[in-house]
Amino acid sequence: MVNRTNDRESGFGEALTEKEKRIIRILREINYGEIIIVVQDKQPVRIEEVKKSIKL
Predict the structure, then answer these.
(1) What are the beta bridge partners of residue 48?
(2) For residue range 13-56, what is the model confidence (pLDDT) as tens digits?
């Protein structure tokens, strides 16, 4: 059984912000790779896409 009170308190019951919606769109467009999501004050502020990774 899921406790809905805890979901609301943790933010899962809230609607997505525009920035969160943009992150989801970007994730769906990426075929492969790695990204870093920078968060400030509980909100995403920037996505960094790793351009080059060299495995030795």
Answers:
(1) 36
(2) 789 999 999 999 999 998 888 899 999 999 999 999 877 777 88
**What is the number of domains present in the chain?**
1
Q: Which amino acid would we find at residue 39? A: V
Phi-psi region of 14 (alpha: psi -120 to 50; beta: other; left: phi over 0): beta
Domain that holds residue 19: 15-56
The pTM for the full model equals 0.61
Residues with Cβ within 8 Å of 37's Cβ and at least 6 positions away in sequence, in order, are: 23, 44, 46, 47
d(CA 41, CA 27): 22
